[in-house]
Structure formats: C-alpha cells, structure tokens
Specification:
The chain has five helices and five strands, in the order E-E-E-E-E-H-H-H-H-H. With 160 residues, it is an alpha+beta fold. Strands 1-5-4-3-2 form a five-stranded antiparallel beta sheet, covered by helices on one side. A hairpin with a 6-residue loop joins strand 4 and strand 5. The radius of gyration is 16 Å and the shape is globular.
Length: 160
C-alpha cells in the first residue's frame, strides 16, 4: 500500500485508468525504477499521490469524494488532513488504509476492532463516494452546474 508524492510527468507516460466527475482520475504508468505499474491519483488543485496498486488508488479517490476533497500539503509525513478527521471513524479508517504505514490489521488494532469491522467501514466510505459521484453525474446530465470552479479541490460545490 505504499504511495509517494507524484514524480514529474516528464519521467513517465500516464494513461487514464479510471475517470471520475469533476476532473478527478486515476492514471497508470510504468514504474521506471521497477518492473510493473504504478497508479496515480490526480485531481484539480491536488498535488497527486502515487500507489503501487489500483485498489488503493481507488480507495484514496473514494475518501477524496467522501469528504468533498482535501489537501494533504502541510500535514507532514504522518499527518491527516482535518477534513478526514472531521468526517468520522469510517473515513479515517479508509484513509489510513491508503497510507504506506498501515494495512487492515494495523487499522483494526488502532481502533481496537476486528478486521471485519474495518472492512465494513471501508464499504460505507465506498458506498457514499459512489452516491456522491452518481449525484454529480446526474446533475451534470441535467445541465445543472456542480461547481463554480471544479478545479477548487476541497470545495467541490456539491451538497449531495
């Protein structure tokens, strides 16, 4: 579940892996240092994050939508953005799972819960994120603007 800051686009060729509303996407690219692929989270006004696997990148995107966006800049190596803390236990658990220092057993231990409970937390975050994305797409189909400036991360302009 390792991730890191984004390498410069000049060092690799990105391909769209999954796209979401509001300019959010996951890209894949060959890892120049190792055999295999890496997956990057990209969003307007977000520094981006790199992941070793697509599932972790997708979970990061789900957390991003669950809290209407967030910025990690200034939180340090092990800090957590305030938007995630405020969102509650399930969102924080899902966010922890996107960090290189945590896995499901670590998160379960952190909360003093069984792994199955952590999996239910993650499922709730994924469900809410999907509902939010579906709502944004429905508004876009209706021609209703969903954001004054969709490039403003953390303030997507939706109350879905």
């Amino acid at each position: 579940m390792s991730n890191s800051a984004s390498p410069s686009p000049e060092t690799r060729s990105e391909r769209a892996y999954r796209t979401y509303p509001l300019g959010v996407r996951i890209v894949e690219h060959d890892d120049p240092d190792e055999e295999g692929r890496r997956y990057g989270f990209r969003a307007p006004d977000h520094a981006g994050r790199e992941f070793e696997d697509a599932d972790t990148a997708a979970l990061y995107a789900d957390v991003y939508f669950d809290v209407n966006g967030f910025v990690e800049a200034g939180t340090g190596d092990r800090g957590v953005p305030p938007e995630i803390i405020q969102a509650g236990r399930d969102t924080l658990a899902a966010y922890f799972l996107t960090q290189p220092y945590a896995d499901a057993d670590w998160v379960a231990s952190f909360y003093g819960k069984k792994r199955a409970r952590i999996e239910r937390y993650v499922a709730a975050v994924r469900r809410r994120a999907e509902e939010i994305r579906d709502g944004v797409e429905a508004l876009e189909r209706e021609g209703t603007p969903v954001a004054d400036d969709a490039s403003v991360g953390g303030r997507m302009g939706t109350d879905i």
